[in-house]
Write a structure and sequence with these properties.
The protein contains four helices and three strands; from the N terminus they run αβααββα. Helix 1 packs antiparallel against helix 4. A hairpin with a 4-residue loop joins strand 2 and strand 3. The chain has a domain of about 110 residues. About 20% of the residues are buried. It is mostly helical and about 190 residues long.
Length: about 190
């Protein structure tokens, strides 16, 4: 149909190379899209796991405040309650900067509270601290437990996508866990 030497010359020998390049570009584009999808999914899952763990820690802090208020003579340890955070500390990079900036100090407060409870009480097993007469500064423990609980509440609100005024910061993911905050009793 076309003869060499005419203006409509089509280099037929480049067609396989062009086809391979188009397949390569398509494959790279599909793989990149899948990696972005996986990263977003992992971020949502990690955020949900940390939110669940923080909600559990908040319940523990509230229980300790109740135990102090009722003069039970002991508080519960939070030592084993940060397993998700400790186990996935390398995956914090999946989260947004403001989430990381809230999560890390909150867990530092939890660890500090645990050290303070250990300093002011006597361990009675691996999960309970008993108050010793004259050694425990119960009011300081109450203040610190309240401070930790408030930090956890703020972090949970941020993970749920809410600002300080309760307004959403970003649209929540369809599979994000619902977090309800209850005021702390004195």
């Amino acid at each position: 149909m076309f003869a060499y030497g005419t203006d409509l010359h089509l280099p037929w020998h480049f067609i396989p190379l062009i086809a391979v390049l188009l397949m390569l570009i398509g494959n790279v584009g599909c793989n990149r899209g899948y990696l972005i999808f996986q990263s977003c999914r992992d971020s949502r899952r990690h955020r949900a796991a940390l939110a669940a763990e923080l909600a559990s820690l908040l319940d523990l802090m509230r229980e300790n405040l109740r135990l102090i208020r009722t003069d039970a003579g002991y508080v519960l340890s939070a030592r084993g309650s940060a397993a998700v955070y400790r186990g996935t500390i390398g995956r914090l990079t999946f989260l947004r900067e403001e989430e990381i900036a809230a999560i890390v100090p909150t867990y530092v407060l939890v660890e500090r509270m645990e050290a303070l409870a250990a300093a002011h009480t006597k361990a009675a097993g691996s999960a309970v601290y008993r108050f010793e007469a004259g050694k425990a500064d119960v009011q300081q423990l109450r203040r610190e437990y309240r401070k930790v609980a408030q930090a956890i509440e703020k972090t949970l609100a941020l993970l749920a996508g809410q600002g300080d005024n309760g307004e959403p910061l970003v649209a929540a993911a369809p599979d994000a866990p619902e977090v309800r905050l209850v005021p702390i009793a004195a």
